Amino acid sequence: MLPSNFRILLIFTIVCAEFFGNEAKIIKFTKLECKDYDKSFIQFKQCQLKAVGRNRIALQLHGDLKKNIDEELTINAELFRKSHDFRPFMYNDTMEFCSFVRNPNRYMFWKILVQDMIQFTNINHTCPYENEIIIKDLILEENMFKTLPFPGNDYMVHVKAILQNEIKAELKVYVVLIE
């Protein structure tokens, strides 16, 4: 039989955990797809996920730019959530890439999503971008998404790079959030 003080503390802890939610969330990459439709614009040399520990998956991406990214590049970014298959979920924005990098406040969701990830990329300055786009050892951490209170589920971010009304490249990043 447990002492009464310990039982009260245990009950209080269980009630608080249920009321305030479980802080131990797991968020990790599950799949990555890169397509370079126009190899005269970009070629993906590396597009992979690498397991670095239990529930820790690192994203590695290396795109060799054949043309400089300047004011003409448009990005379409869309969020999907799984419900039997992946369906559009809340956000679908088309934005001028260089304008977004300069001032991301207009697209607050994408700003919040990207702001902690920038340190793992060479996309940490304004346009033009030359030679390469690199994402190295990007591991998702729960604190990156504290201001985005999404429920546990499978999600996909689909990004299309569009130049002169043609899709030049496409990324699909799959993530699981476990509460």
From TrEMBL:
<protein>
    <recommendedName>
        <fullName>MD-2-related lipid-recognition domain-containing protein</fullName>
    </recommendedName>
</protein>
<dbReference type="InterPro" id="IPR010512">
    <property type="entry name" value="DUF1091"/>
</dbReference>
<feature type="signal peptide">
    <location>
        <begin position="1"/>
        <end position="17"/>
    </location>
</feature>
<dbReference type="Pfam" id="PF06477">
    <property type="entry name" value="DUF1091"/>
</dbReference>
<keyword id="KW-0732">Signal</keyword>
